[in-house]
Amino acid sequence: MATPPGAESMDQVWARTLDSLRQSDDVTAQHRSFIRLIKPLAIVEDNVFLAVAEDFTKNYVETTIRELLTRALSDMIGREVRIAVTVDSSVSPPEPSTPVDDEPPQRRSSGPTRTEPEPAYEDPHLNPRYTFDTFVIGSSNRFAHAAALAVAESPGKTYNPLFIYGDSGLGKTHLLHAIGHYTRHLKPQTRVRYVNSEEFTNDFINSIRDDRSLSFKRNYREVDVLLIDDIQFLQGKEQTLEEFFHTFNALHNAGKHVVITSDVSPRNLDGIEERMRTRFEWGLMTDVQPPDLETRIAILRKKAAADDVQAPGDVLEYIASNITSNIRELEGALIRVTAFAALNKQPVDLSLAQVVLKDLISDDDSEITASTIIGITADYFGISMEELTGTSRSRVYVTARQIAMYLCRQLTDLSLPKIGENFGGKDHTTVMYAVKKVEDQIAQRRQMYNQVNEIHARIKQQSRR
Ligand SMILES: Nc1ncnc2c1ncn2[C@@H]1O[C@H](COP(=O)(O)OP(=O)(O)OP(=O)(O)O)[C@@H](O)[C@H]1O
């Protein structure tokens, strides 16, 4: 398509857009790997036409990075544009003249221009830290672990479906990802699909809106192992449940494996029809319980080793004795103590742990909500809650937003997608990225440590009133 004289070509606009995305804190590594697969086609009036080689990529672009791309392209072009993505299997994404990430050049330029599938264990949907190797086995999760391992070793054979349930922060997602990694490790050609049920819902709704039912079906039915997280979010969503029911049946009939997690057992899943609950019980149901003291200590020891931090036994024991019901909080406490010590160049010892964790360990059961966290964080940074949850990429907003997301993950039981919803409908990968970024920066930058600590203390103080 011809470019009007004087106007920038599509390629130029795209190159500048990639450049701006490279500088954006909202763009995660996963986003980047998908952005690389896009070929820009043309700008016609207010529409930007993009092409990708596969339905799966189109789906991701449309559900996960549409907003981000639309914003960046609109900024570049200087007016509000819409994006339209088409699938063309002959498409090779352009060789980026302006890289969108910091990947070493040899990796980008090696091989054909059409991106080869990543090695299985680099699946962007799976957290590389959640493997069987990093999972600590104890009496609270031994059975769930064994069942997960059996599924990964021979998917489609036994325990189909496998249904893992239990309270928040007890390792269900970790096990689900571990199944994904290990299945692929043993048989790289196995098609594994991990999805959170909120993503499944969005994907389904978008597929109806965009008339893409066929590609939706293909995405979820042409797999060997479907890992679906937090199924309780489908409660009461009739149409999505109906679709999931058909997906489940199609896979099960074809001898494919389905693994489901939930915060309650199938019996207690309200708003889900009996016929479906019965199916969930066809295979194996297993719960995960809060870990006992030994397991909590072992988890902390493993985490300390993985993060390469030194923490003596009595400190680990102190943390493990006081934080009992959620492994996410347990890990968060260790990070706080070791980060404080590193920043102050002090050794990690018991008295330091006691001081640092004073707030965390003091007993109060009052519920902390996302809006309390957002309100207090916004107040701390002197911005409004709308600004905090909005889309501005100025540094102070981004920092405040990321800290608030991190604290929501630490202090509430909200899932990543639910946290995203509280921040104006951000994608769960944006939340995941924010949590990781704050976690890393707490350990490296005193200012970040102090800010997070101060906001945390204010939240706790307010919730005690
Ligand atoms: N047995 C374990 N060994 C090592 N780490 C664990 C174990 N169980 C949980 N964790 C860690 O605890 C954190 C929370 O686990 P995870 O996200 O899997 O919980 P979940 O049960 O899926 O929670 P939610 O229902 O809130 O999604 C993760 O960082 C995970 O790696």
UniProtKB/TrEMBL annotation:
Region described as Disordered: spans on this chain: 88-127
PROSITE patterns, per database record: DNAA
Pfam families according to UniProt: Bac_DnaA, Bac_DnaA_C
The AAA+ ATPase domain, residue ranges: 158-286
Alphabetical UniProt keywords: ATP-binding, Cytoplasm, DNA replication, DNA-binding, Lipid-binding, Nucleotide-binding
Record domain Chromosomal replication initiator DnaA C-terminal: where: 369-438
Subcellular location: Cytoplasm
Chain residue ranges for the region called Domain I, interacts with DnaA modulators: 1-103
Domain of life: Bacteria
SMART domains: AAA (SM00382), Bac_DnaA_C (SM00760)
Function as written in the Swiss-Prot or TrEMBL entry: Plays an essential role in the initiation and regulation of chromosomal replication. ATP-DnaA binds to the origin of replication (oriC) to initiate formation of the DNA replication initiation complex once per cell cycle. Binds the DnaA box (a 9 base pair repeat at the origin) and separates the double-stranded (ds)DNA. Forms a right-handed helical filament on oriC DNA; dsDNA binds to the exterior of the filament while single-stranded (ss)DNA is stabiized in the filament's interior.
Domain characteristics, as noted in the entry: Domain I is involved in oligomerization and binding regulators, domain II is flexibile and of varying length in different bacteria, domain III forms the AAA+ region, while domain IV binds dsDNA.
Family: Belongs to the DnaA family.
Name of this chain's protein: Chromosomal replication initiator protein DnaA
Organismal lineage: Bacteria, Bacillati, Actinomycetota, Actinomycetes, Micrococcales
Gene that this sequence comes from: dnaA
